[in-house]
Design goal:
Elements: E1 2-7, H1 13-25, E2 30-33, H2 42-52, E3 57-60, H3 70-83, E4 88-92, H4 97-103, H5 110-124, E5 130-133, E6 138-142, E7 160-163, H6 167-176, E8 179-182, H7 187-203, E9 212-221, H8 225-242, H9 245-250, H10 255-266, H11 270-276, H12 279-285, E10 287-289, H13 291-303, E11 308-315, H14 319-332
Parallel strand pairs: 1-2, 1-11, 2-3, 3-4, 4-7, 7-8, 8-9, 9-10, 9-11
Antiparallel strand pairs: 5-6
Helix pairs in contact: 1-2, 1-14, 2-3, 3-5, 5-6, 6-7, 8-10, 8-12, 10-11
The protein binds coenzyme F420 (F42).
Length: 333
């Protein structure tokens, strides 16, 4: 299993670059940067990371087809790829519905939007003139001049990963993604996802073994197990409050608990959340605990079909320490 790490650019970019450099030194193969319009901008953050590192692959984790035109996305990721000497990856998903409401965006036809974006970006990265008549994207003779392989030293064959949760989006990802970033931390989520991914892959004659299935986890490790759980619980609360009913059902969380958690978030009662979110809830929605427990959970995810474990927020009560602990995990895995 490969290891990746996620950073939310809600801290100064140079600080994130230092974390990314530390992660690279610890053996992580991928760093993923989230894309939310209230945070620092994803491609400029990735560019700084590209200059601060030399081996680690750098991906958007994940952008969407609504806040940026897929043509702009193709140009942005190609630029980062040039800066990073061919280490860029495009992660794209349907985006965050709540943000879209605030921005006055409809976020329509998410399945077509994601599928067509992947197809169009791939075509544009060949440097060829692209015309496309889709349900979501319409293009006439659009071309990325600098992606022409004859004019660039770097390979513009950038892998495209799809951020997916819902059954239909997972199926779409199985059909078009080089990889899939699934917000999940429990083997049951990946056993269920595997069925959908295979459906999508089979429909277009692909082999699922060619798809990198990434667990985009809530990860919290520390030698002090209690502190590890305390750090994970606020993140777990947000995950439960935003989870689809089918996912809550899978993990035995009632609508009553979901409402109680959502109310505590709205009231900013983060102390209360530490009691409402039980350790067993955290175990369902996070890879959390001491070194040995997290190692055991990572192995279970691998058995469930995960081929990349992306350690996501919060990482632990102390980020630097957690990066070192996960590095130890990578070397002993
Ligand atoms: N979102 C962000 O905004 N920023 C991030 O940095 C980010 C990172 C991220 C990483 C991994 C990951 O898995 C998700 C991440 N997300 C991030 C969230 C992501 O953008 C999505 O919000 C999240 O994955 C949920 O999407 P989903 O896969 O569940 O798909 C949604 C759209 C959905 O409802 N899907 C359903 C399904 O079954 O898959 C149904 C979709 C459907 O049928 N739609 C119809 C259609 O035609 O497309 C239309 C239905 C209608 O009524 O319009």
């Amino acid at each position: 299993m490969k290891f990746g790490i996620e950073f939310v650019p809600n801290e100064p970019v140079f600080k994130i670059a230092a974390y990314a450099k530390a992660a690279e030194e610890q053996g992580f193969e991928y760093v993923w940067i989230t894309d939310h319009c209230n945070n620092r901008e994803v491609y400029s953050t990735m560019s700084v990371l590209a200059l601060a590192t030399s081996k680690i692959k750098i991906g958007t984790g994940v952008t969407n087809p609504y806040t940026r035109s897929p043509v702009v996305t193709a140009g942005s990721i190609a630029s980062v790829n040039e800066i990073a000497g061919g280490r860029a990856i495009l992660g794209i998903g349907p985006g965050d519905k709540m943000t879209f409401e605030a921005l006055g965006l409809a976020g329509e036809k998410p399945l077509a939007a994601v599928k067509e974006s992947a197809e169009v970006v791939r075509e544009l990265l060949t440097g060829k003139k692209v015309s496309y008549d889709g349900d979501f994207i319409k293009l006439k003779n659009v071309k990325l001049d600098f992606a022409n392989p004859k004019k660039t030293d770097v390979d513009m064959n950038i892998p495209i990963y799809i951020g997916a949760q819902g059954p239909k989006m997972l199926e779409t990802a199985g059909a078009v993604g080089d990889g899939i970033l699934i917000n999940g931390s429990h083997p049951d989520d990946f056993k269920a996802a595997a069925i959908q991914i295979k459906k999508g892959a089979d429909a277009v004659g692909r082999n699922v073994k060619d798809i990198d299935v990434a667990a985009y986890t809530c990860f919290s490790v520390d030698e002090d197990v209690e502190k590890a759980y305390a750090a994970a619980k606020p993140v777990v609360a947000f995950i439960i409050a935003g989870a689809a009913d089918a996912i809550l059902e899978r993990h035995g969380i009632s609508q009553f608990s979901k409402k109680e958690i959502a109310d505590a978030i709205v009231q900013g009662d983060f102390k209360g959340l530490n009691t409402i979110i039980t350790d067993s809830m955290a175990d369902r929605f996070a890879v959390v605990g001491g070194f040995d427990e997290c190692m055991k959970k990572a192995k279970e995810l691998e058995k469930a079909g995960v081929t990349q474990l992306v350690a996501g927020s919060p990482l632990g009560p102390n980020k630097e320490k957690s990066i070192r602990l996960i590095g130890k995990m990578i070397s002993e895995f």
